[in-house]
Each structure stands twice: as C-alpha cells, then as structure tokens.
Amino acid sequence: MKAFIVYCHPSDDSFTKNMCDSFLKGIKDSGNEYIISDLYRMDFKSDITEQEYLRDANYLTTPNVAPDVLAEHEKINSSDVIVFIYPIFWTEAPAKLVGWFDRVWSYGFAYGEKTMKELDKAVILCSAGNPLERLENFGLLGSMKKVMFGDRLFGRVKNNEFVLFDSTSREKPLREKNWEDNLKKAYEKGLNLFEVKEEKFTLEDRFFTAIENSESGEVSSQTIFAYHQKGNVIWAEYSGGSIIKGFLLGTIDDNNNLHFNYQHINTDNKLKSGSCDSVPKTENGILRFYEKWKWTDGEEGTSIIEEI
C-alpha cells in the first residue's frame, strides 16, 4: 500500500517537522511505502496563474495543465491514501498548501468529469498553538474540519480522519511536556495507517438531505443537514429550500437511533419547532434515517433523510 504525503512547513526547526518524521518512520516500519511532496523544499508555486484560472473558470478540459500540477496528479492517482501534514496559521493551512489546492484541484481532475481516483482514506495531521478546548469552544476546529472535509476532500475520499496536536507553541509548557507522547502518537498513526478497522459509528462531519417528507413538513431535497457528534450528543445545522436556518440538538443511543428537538425559521419568517426520533438504515450502501417527527402544536409526520 502507498501513501501520498503533502507536507507543508517553512522550517525544519519545528514540532511539525519532528511529527512528520515520526509519522513517516511509522509507515516505513509497517512495511508500506510513501511518496512525499515537501511543498517548501520543492518551492511549489502556490499562486494560480491567469491561464489556470481561466481554464478552470470556463470549465475547460484542455490538456495545457502545468507540469508541476500533473506531477501531483500522478502522485495522487498512484496512491491509496493521502495525508496532509501542516501547522495551523490563523485557523487555516499555510498559504502554500491552500495554493496547492487552488492549482492541483483543477477542473477535469478533482471536479467536473473527474480523473482523480477515489482514495481509500484521507488523514490530516496538524499542529496548533492553541489548546484543543479553545479551538472547540470558539468553533475553530469545526471550521477547519468543514473546509477540509466538507469542501476540499468531499466526495474524493471514502474515509477521513483529523488528528490535532494542540498546545504546540513554543511558549506553551505542554509543548515540551507532551513532546515524546505526541511523537509516539504520530508514529503509531503512520504504523497503523493502512490497517482496516471497524470504524465506530459517528455522525461527525456527515451531510444529509431529505428525500421524502410528509405534506406538513418543511424540509426538502434542497435542505442540507450538517451533523456533528461528541460522545452520545448529536447536533446539526440545516438550511435550504423553505428553511432559512435551523438547528437540532439531541442524543444518539446504543443502536444509533437519534432523539432530538429542532427549531428553524422558514422563508415566511415563522419560527417552527418540534421533536423527532430517527432510525438508521443502510440501503444500497447509502445511510438513511427514517424519521418520525412532531411539531410543537401537535401535528405529526414522517420523513427520510439520506447521506450525501
């Protein structure tokens, strides 16, 4: 098995470089192989050119793709897993990695009539100066994951994993205290990268839309649900169609049934709310939830949402 590593950090004198080295050693010790694009050492050109912009903006499949971009395409399509390793700069990847996506995710490769293979897995290993709690409380971790998994990698990988190494700024005492444990964690991630594990069911970063609804319901195929999960707590934001903005909050039980309350504002500026119980079923490889809901005024209905 082969992994393609996209590494982006401007300095070798960094925790991220040590973490990357430990991860790569784990892959090597597992008997698997990898190829790596070290974007700073390659001096990868991150600014998209006018020609590249116009090609993508006009949805052209002309073959005039730059050689350095074609080389990245070949690395992706020769691999089973893609891994991104980088530090977080102002809640985002370094500009050079953002530019890598701008150029490498070209029309006809990553979208449109794609020639990019669907990879088995994507893993993100990133270092953050802030502690995990702050990133979660301010919604920053969720934003980072949504950009990577809800946009850049959406529909391009079968499974994904976001691994955060927090409190790694030089002034943080936890940087040195957790140094060896973090490098061991990175090594084990590399060592077990290709292991097939039975994944624990989670709704984290999964998206759904309604495919069926009772007449008195308001969600539709234009409504998108963005789900999250922490422990047995689930929540989601939803909008689209006749829904301007909605939120739901509840729990998931041991059988993966959902129990939650919801409320939203519709396009008539009416605030609606209710409760819902949902039962999961996987049909033809697609996850669906069969929902029984009840408006606060007592009217009941059923709906089906399907993973996108």
Please provide a brief summary of the model:
By secondary structure, this protein is of the alpha/beta class. The protein contains nine helices and 13 strands.
Your description of this structure?
The chain is an alpha/beta fold and 308 residues long. The protein has an eight-stranded antiparallel beta barrel with strand order 6-7-8-9-10-11-12-13. The chain has nine helices and 13 strands. It has helices at residues 15-29, 39-42, 50-57, 67-77, 95-104, 132-137, 140-152, 173-177, 179-191, and strands at residues 2-7, 33-38, 81-87, 119-127, 157-165, 206-213, 224-230, 233-240, 243-252, 258-266, 271-283, 286-295, 300-307.
List the SSEs and their pairings:
Layout: E1 2-7, H1 15-29, E2 33-38, H2 39-42, H3 50-57, H4 67-77, E3 81-87, H5 95-104, E4 119-127, H6 132-137, H7 140-152, E5 157-165, H8 173-177, H9 179-191, E6 206-213, E7 224-230, E8 233-240, E9 243-252, E10 258-266, E11 271-283, E12 286-295, E13 300-307
Parallel strand pairs: 1-2, 1-3, 3-4, 4-5
Antiparallel strand pairs: 6-7, 6-13, 7-8, 8-9, 9-10, 10-11, 11-12, 12-13
Helix pairs in contact: 1-9
